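Cross-check.
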Amino acid sequence: MRTNPFSASSCGRCCSRRNVQPVMADTLARAEALVVKESFDLIFLDIRLPDGDGHHFLDRLATLPERPLVVMVTGHGTIESAVAFSTSSALAALAYQ
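Predicted model, tokenized:
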């Protein structure tokens, strides 16, 4: 779930080369609708999305019966987001520019 189109397409190409079908959502609302309908093994979740904060969605993902692995990503890293990540259930955090 990404807001950066270049990064989203790069991630999609990487998945396709490994015979993994990527599913992309550009808003939290779309992501919420997707996780209600199907389960996911791995989610790349941007901290900043047009309609909300990825950290809040991470909390929602932690309540799912089949909890996916989550990698938090951001192009807007801050001390606050680093602290929030360190206490979250995310597998890893990546910063990009």
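Strands lie at 42-46, 48-49, 52-53, 69-74, 92-95. The CA atoms of residues 47 and 55 lie 6 Å apart. Passed to J.P. for a second look.
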